[in-house]
Specification:
The protein is α/β, with parallel strands linked by helices. Helix content is about 35%, strand content about 20%. The protein has a single domain, classed as 3-Layer(aba) Sandwich (Rossmann fold), CATH 3.40.50.150. A 5-stranded mixed β-sheet has the order 3-2-1-4-5.
Amino acid sequence: MSPFYWQLAKMLEYYEQRHSEYETIYAKAERQNDLAWLDQELSRLIAGHQVLEVACGTGYWTRRMAKSAQSIRATDASVQLAASAVESCCTGKVQSGVLDALALPESTAFDSLVELCANQATI
């Protein structure tokens, strides 16, 4: 196994073990205004779109996008996290999948790509 994939495997193991802690970052009082703004803007930008979400993690943003997107393919390098994201949504318009974010497939099935992390966003 190459050093890159060894590190990726270790990183996935770490995230899968700690995924129950992830969303505590969104509960901090000082972040509420920014989160509300991002939620509103994201909903506006993807309304009616077919979204490919990269690095969905626990599904915090997947749940929010599900309110306005036509459909979402929530993907992560971790099978466990992608499945967890879909399970947290109460709608049939979200599907999960495993995806290498460094090798995005060519596809006409999606008209929007979203990747949200704690320190950056790509919409």
